[in-house]
Amino acid sequence: MFRPIYLDHNATTPLDPAVLEAMLPWLESQYGNASSRHEYGRQARQAIDEARQKVAAAVNAHPTEVVFTSGGSETNNLFLKGAAACLKPGALAVSAVEHPCVLKPAEQLAKQGWQVRHLAVDRAGRVKTEDFSEAMLLRPKLVSVMLANNETGIVQDIPVLANLAKSAGSWFHTDAVQALGKLDLDFRALNLAGVHAMTLSAHKANGPKGAAALIINKRIELQPLIAGGGHERGLRSGTENVPAIVGFGVAAELAANRVAELSARLRAMQAKLEAGLAGLGARVFATDAMRLPNTSYFAFPDIDGETLVGKLDREGFAVASGAACSSANPEPSHVLRAMGVAPEIARGAIRVSLGAGNTEAEIEQFINALWATVGRLQGLTAMAV
Questions:
Q1: CA neighbours within 13 Å on the CB side: how many for 150?
Q2: Which CATH class is domain 17-254?
Q3: Between the chain's N and C termini, which has fewer beta carbons within 10 Å?
């Protein structure tokens, strides 16, 4: 079976063998409902409690601050809509480079009377402190700024921004989905700085799809998106996905234990990759800012990103394009547009996101394949002119 080299870990990651091993009993013999009072149910409840403790320990939170959900999108919606439902409409500030699962709920809240303020970013994708300070004069009730961007890998200075928001009396949320396993996460320190809630997702850190968590200060009131049996402290009703939650716990524990070693190895491969990209004449975005150690976002002049992704896939490399996936929306990445990148360059954007299984030899193979592929595409472009 043909298996391309996988260079798209910001989209999802392969399941760690230890995670799968922990999940298997809960997919086979351990099938109890955690709400049942018999032995099967008690065992399932204990497994969820242990997973909650592992997730909490991985980010220095208390287990009672962990609310399990089905994914990052649900989690971000839970905070924004759940918090908004407990407040009178007012100002809501979100960065211009957020994931759609923050931007779209903000648009929905705007239709309910909320005043949405999009926070400007600089050419590297960092939230502009002066614009953020200006936005805080509106005294926004809610603020959401992602910790690490899924496209560029940019890491925002969340403690500084949260401190500014604290002075405005705002509830501050950060989407940290891309950070788990790549950066040290300390919710207690972030909470002291002014962060009230943080989103995590298992499948971004070698865990299963279908499990995520909102880490939230217990003083923050939320109205649940899903009402019913009162699961997860009444914040997320529904029979718990025990196998995925168990897997999430193990994945979070492994991610926290490996983060220092893995980050150093990823950073070395990132440097090797970007040296090769520079030699090919690529424009690498946001190199002058702090980024995730695994993410490189780049473009070649006059080469369409979707076309290059398809060509590389056939050459045996799985990467991502920065262009919109829907044919109904041909616009380039909203993240690059917010950074002031010209549309003709943004449409060529390609993202490589590395993971634990990648090697330097694979980076060399990718650069060689990219050199040949880009050369052919540039030759076709020259012939068409």
A1: 23
A2: alpha beta
A3: N
Query: Same CATH topology for 5-12+260-384 and 17-254?
Result: no
Q: What would the pLDDT profile of 131-180 be if each residue is shown by its tens digit? A: 999 999 999 999 999 999 999 999 999 999 999 999 999 999 999 999 99
Active site annotation includes 325: yes
Tokens of 112: 């309910």
Fold of 5-12+260-384: Aspartate Aminotransferase, domain 1 (3.90.1150)
What is the average pLDDT value for the chain, to the nearest integer? 95
What's the rounded Cα separation, in Å, for the pair 358 and 180?
18
Instruction: Give residue limits of the domains in the chain.
Output: 5-12+260-384, 17-254
Return the closest-CA partner of residue 364 out of 276, 284, 271.
276
C-alpha R_g of the chain: 21
Question: Catalytic residue among 1, 325, 361, 383, which?
Answer: 325
| Residue 379: per-residue pLDDT | 75
Q: Is 225 exposed, middle or buried (0-12, 13-18, 19+ CB in 10 A)?
A: middle
Give, in order, the Cα–Cα distances in Å from 378 to each of 267, 276, 278, 308, 352: 30, 17, 16, 11, 20
Contact residues for 368 (Cβ-Cβ < 8 A; gap 6+): none
250-266 pLDDT, tens digit per residue, is 999 999 999 999 999 99
